[in-house]
Amino acid sequence: MSKQPDQQPSAKTANKKMWGGRFQQSTNELVEQFSESISFDARLYEHDIRGSIAHATMLAAVGVLTNEERDSIKSGLLNILADIQAGDFTWSTALEDVHMNIEARLTKDIGEAGKKLHTGRSRNDQVATDIRLYLRDRSDAQVELLNNLQTALLDLAEPEIETIMPGFTHLQVAQPISFAHHMLAWCEMLQRDKERVLSTRERINVMPLGSAALAGTSFPIDRSITCELLGFATPTRNSLDAVSDRDFAIEFASNGAILMMHLSRMCEEIILWMSEAYKFISIGDAYCTGSSIMPQKKNPDIAELVRGKCARVYGDLTTLLTLMKSQPLAYNRDNQEDKEPLFDVVDTLEIVLPVFTAMIPAIEVKRERMYQAALGGYATATDLAEYLVRKQIPFRDAHEIVGKVVNYAIENEQQLSDIALEKLQSFGPMIEQDVFAVLSLEGSIQSRDHFGGTAPKRVAEALRSMRESI
Ligand code: ARG
Predict the structure, then answer these.
(1) φ, ψ dihedrals at 395, nearest 5°
(2) Could you read off the pLDDT of 194-235 as tens digits, one per residue?
(3) Measuring from atom 11 of ligand 1, which residue has the nearest CA?
(4) Of 30, 78, 355, 374, which residue is the least packed, with the fewest Cβ within 10 Å?
(5) In this structure, how many other beta carbons lie within 10 angstroms of the beta carbon of residue 111?
């Protein structure tokens, strides 16, 4: 079929692309809409500009650009940065993505030197570098947010070291614990979340720039210069891998998913504790909402929403994993799809963490209710069994004896500590007056006096060391 230039505007006259040299026809409008990423990758502008300035600086250092060209590129890019920050930059869909929008504007502003910026570089190593710079910043922000949340939890825990609540297994009353011990359990989960963020940050902090499209470049680049200018620990070792893999982004999202899973568990407990059935805590009005029909309602919506937001982060992680699956080396355009789920993880965490943290001081601990709840459910039965073991009864036999005592208590609607000594002795003749110290809630938690246990002294130590580690 012969070309019909009259019916199709030539690429030279309409809609000229930066990559359009070999193209005879302009891009189909639907294709342009379909393939643009500027509507979501514009947020990478700052990191894109930083990367470009470092690249130009390096090119001048190795003699590929003159110092004048470097200076002109640098000041041009800084002007663009200021314009974007001031809201004075018009993004164009026809220019596809953040990289080409900025480069096109640079050339418009400074002329010839702008056209040389892309020497020895491709959008493939450029975008991989941008995302890594971006995620490195977001990792640092996340560590800060996690520190704030842990501090809020420690502040809530500190006055409650001696506050006794029922500890649960299977959501059934199991053994008495210190409320602060429970808060410290949450802090431990968050501590690991933070360690994961920091560990992933090490793998993020590696520089793809210099890998160019996939095979590296024939220019005499010095990657150690760009690496140092951008604060990367080291350049990537393989150009194919560097432009193609997004495992670091998947890791970032995976850490986010695990963190959200932890927050959803905390929220579940907060929601239960605030219910009429538990009444372990109340939450200040500022962090609850009402019902449009039931005037009496005060709902823990913040906790419910945080629990719900966990779902979308799982979704984002699944999207990224699926996106990367089966991609052959090296860069494929599929990877443009990494940004929206990744940004969604960032945005979700960066609103969830501050809101959840702000809610913590609004929690009021209902000490008396927790204490009463711990009294029910025979929470010190294990203490009684352990008491018998100290009286030389083998643990299995002790378990059996205490089971019968509990049965008696249930039938007679008594607490274990209310049963008369003579009655207890009818189950186990070795039981003496000193048993009552063991049957009390206070005695129970005091006795768990080892590293990691719930004895108030140990909890106070754990709280101190957690504070120091933040
Ligand atoms: N917008 C693209 C992305 O996010 C930039 C890289 C495009 N590279 C290419 N060869 N088309 O992945």
Answers:
(1) -55, -45
(2) 999 999 999 999 999 999 999 999 999 999 999 999 999 999
(3) 333
(4) 30
(5) 11
For residue range 294-326, list pLDDT tens digits in order.
Answer: 888 889 999 999 999 999 999 999 999 999 999
Residue 333 tokens, joined: 């355009």
Residue in 39, 92, 199, 291 annotated catalytic: 291
Report, as ranges of residue numbers, the positions in the chain whose pLDDT lies below 50: 1-13
The CA 188 to ligand 1 mean position distance, Å, reads 40
Using the atom order of ligand 1, give the atom closest to the CA of residue 37.
1
- Of 336, 338, 340, the residue with max ligand 1 atoms within 8 A of its CB, to mutate for a pocket test, comes to 336
SS3 label, residue 127: helix
Q: Is 170 a catalytic residue?
A: yes
- CA–CA distance, 270 with 266 (Å, rounded to integer): 6
Token pair 């690249």 in the structure block, residue: 55
Give the residue among 131, 95, 135, 136 at the shortest CA–CA distance from 209: 131
Mutate to test the pocket of ligand 1, among 43, 100, 118, 127 (most ligand atoms within 8 A of CB): 127
21 vs 382: CA distance, rounded Å: 80
Best of 124, 324, 327 to mutate for ligand 1, by most ligand atoms within 8 A of CB? 124
| Residues having CB within 6 Å of any atom of ligand 1 | 37, 41, 97, 123-124, 127, 333, 335-336
Amino acid, single-letter form, for residue 92: S
Q: What percent of the chain has pLDDT over 70?
A: 97
291 carries an active-site annotation = yes
Q: Are strands 234-235 and 206-207 parallel, antiparallel or unpaired?
A: parallel
For residues 412 and 385, give the distance between their C-alpha atoms in angstroms, rounded to a whole number.
Answer: 20
| Cis geometry, peptide bond prior to residue 330 (ω within 30 degrees of 0) | yes
Q: Which domains does the chain have, with CATH numbers?
A: 3-119 (1.10.275.10), 126-217+233-371 (1.20.200.10), 376-463 (1.10.40.30)
Q: Counting atoms of ligand 1 from 1, which one is nearest the CA of 123?
A: 6
Q: What is the pTM of this model?
A: 0.94
